[in-house]
Amino acid sequence: MRPEFPVIILTGRPASGKSEVIDYLKKLPVEERYRRFGIAAFDEIDDFPMLWAWFEEDAILEKIMYKPRMHTDRDGYFLHQYQWDLLIERISLDYSKKLRDEHYHQTHTAILEFSRGTEHGGYRSAFEHLSDEILERALIIYIDVPYEESLRKNRKRFNPNRPDSILEHGLPDEKLERLYHDVDWEEVSAESPTHITVKGHKVPYVVFRNMPSQTDDPELLGPALDEVFVKAREVYKKSR
């Protein structure tokens, strides 16, 4: 089954519902997922495992090897702002590896997942570091929640016994506020209700307004995603 959407960029504040959307898609039978959302087989490329590996490496260096930390300070903040853009370059690199199979998009969608706050460059900077191979194929789905909802759900999902888990990781309140209180999505998407221009590419987008929360309950999430993908099909088709 050839996917309708070769690349989906799934983004929004932390705990906005991105991982729950992907988990919902994973649990659907392939035929149903393709019928409803135009996605059959898919791969997820998420920058959180990359970021977490840096935290783990720094802990090993400092506590076991007695060497200087390489990536973050002791409060868990990156040593350099450009590391946020490095993560996007890593996403682009991992995607390019998928394309080594020349028939990849005849069967697979790539779902790219990340969050960005204004404090560390925002979406404007992040999108500029996506490869042309991604931008020419992508649909952006932005999950829109206010900061207060991000804070609530970040607290709710955090499991201190599984801080590396995609579905159960979280940020301390002070770090969430510093990094993600302000986002530049409205500014970046202001030029058009249907697309964002990045490096000459007109990348279509849709907004999933997740208030009140629909991603906590699969019974609510399913119909909400049906509506999102009706709009997604429309804007994507017009962009081709």
What does the model show?
- By secondary structure, the chain is an alpha/beta fold.
- The chain has a single domain (7-239), classed as P-loop containing nucleotide triphosphate hydrolases (Rossmann fold, 3-Layer(aba) Sandwich).
- It is 47% helix and 16% strand.
- It has eleven helices and six strands.
- It has a six-stranded mixed β-sheet, with helices on both faces.
- It is globular.
Q: Brief overview, please?
A:
This protein has 240 residues and is an alpha/beta fold. The chain contains eleven helices and six strands.
Question: Which features characterize this protein?
Answer:
240 residues; Rossmann fold; 11 helices; globular
Poorly predicted ranges: none
Question: Which structural class do the helices and strands define?
Answer: alpha/beta
CATH architecture: 3-Layer(aba) Sandwich
CATH fold description: Rossmann fold
Name of the CATH homologous superfamily: P-loop containing nucleotide triphosphate hydrolases
Q: Average pLDDT value?
A: 94
Q: What amount of the residues lies in strands? A: 15-25%
Gross geometry = globular
Number of domains: 1
Distance between the termini: 19 Å
CATH class: Alpha Beta
Counting DSSP H or I runs of 4 or more residues, the number of helices is 11
Beta-strand segment tally: 6
Order of strands, main sheet, comes to: 2-3-1-4-6-5
Q: Roughly what percent helix?
A: 40-55%
Instruction: Report the C-alpha radius of gyration, rounded.
Output: 18 Å
Largest sheet: 6 strands, mixed
Secondary-structure element series: EHHEHHHEHHEHHHEEH
